[in-house]
Amino acid sequence: MKYLIQKGFTLRFTISLLVIIAILLTMLTSITSAVQVNRASLIGNYLQNNEQYAKKLASNTNELLVTMQQNINAIAKISGRSQEMDAQLFDDLFQENTQYFNSIVVADANRIVRALSPHTIGIEVGDQLTSAQSKMAVSLKAPFISNPYRATTGRYIILISAPIVDASGAYQGFVGGTIYLEDKNVLSTMLKEHFFGNGSYVYVVEKNGAIIFHPDKQRIGKSVISNPVVKNVLMKKSGSQRVTNSEGGQFFAGYAYEPSSSWGIISQTPTSVIVKPLHDLIKRVLLASLPFLLLILILGWWVASRIAKPLNTLAQFSDQATLGSARPQNVPDIKSAYYEVRLLSQSVKIAFQHLNQDLTQLRNEAGVDELTGLANRRTLDTVLQQWTEYHMPFAVILIDIDHFKGVNDTYGHVLGDQVLKHLAQLMRNVSLEGDLCFRYGGEEFGILVQRSGPREAGVVAERLRKEMERTANPIGVPVTISAGVAAYPEHGRSPRDLILKADEALYRSKTGGRNRVTLSGEAEVRRAQTGR
Questions:
Q1: Model pTM score
Q2: Do residues 495 and 384 lie in contact, with contact meaning Cβ atoms separated by under 8 Å?
């Protein structure tokens, strides 16, 4: 180095150094851009997926609570038929409801226990219930779901009750079903598995901000009202945001409000999940670029003394590309009689083209659902906006796999994912070029049928429904779908209105018995009368 300083840097060394710097800066700019694009996409996907998952769990929780309240009401009606409840009958009723309740108690108007099951819960027939919630049940004389409280037995529980009235309509007491929040219960069974399996988890808070379900049982009963996500969900809001929880952990959180119980359901994923994909991206870009970089360095060192001017031109372009003022496809065409100069020029072009292709591919992948290969919610929103702005006639088919939770519970998530892929392939089979098949979230899918009215789209949806019903699927038993159809501009002139109308039609298909197609504002599509 001392010798070089005294003598001066050679032209070969200087030009090679400029090439190295220019190429490295360009690579750094490209990698930074790729990382930023992919990072934004990952964050958006996790926030969106957690929000959709929280909404789905809120819907499932609502259905569960309605079922539990109905079962308690039924037991209350049976209890009102006679003064004394047959012990064996009551035990049988409890056995039929063990998947919902940890215990069931019948108390009279004075809160004296008349029947209970099981018989090992810490109280006996003849004891008087003293909790504020039991007093409220007698005072209200109406069905209600209590706030969490500490029972006389020491358990932290939720009470779901229904009044008992005799044949003349006189109030006789109440039936109360309990959920032991600190033990295995119906809520923990439904909510314990998060669909990501990467450190994500779900927790539930009641209306005062206390946790009633959490994977860490030690946190049950603790107040987290200071958490901004909890504040939002208890204000009856649903959404998603990045949040730091009460223990300092950073998460991508989605939240949804459950109205029947005033509970908030939060699904969250640790922010650290995006670190590995970003590291993998950087490694991939570096490995793809390294051979071209080495080729450029070797050729540059070898012929620098003879190609100073062309190399200087390339270096200037690289500097411009680093600053973002030049595009990879505009690499200057070097005119030279030397084969090595032409090869170097071509290598630079190839290197930039590959970097640009990697970046383009990453941007494209950001719009594709990773599991099924269909368009994701972001691509759907973009296409809907474009088609409505150009006033292009089209129809929206929203699709939901019937009883998909049962598929996952019975056969596992791996086969459940195969069922999702199977449906995605059938969607591609029934759609035409120009249509957009997409995954809306979870087991919900859809097709944008280009230049189609509601009837034609209904035919496509019915064809897909039949294919799904009769085609062999990965779990070996029939799996069906329900669908709802809405068309632009007949049923709405904005993307939001169209999705809402299609979702309403889908809801009618599901409440009407499932395995059917419903057009917005019309009856179920039973048979396809015309082809498309």
A1: 0.50
A2: yes
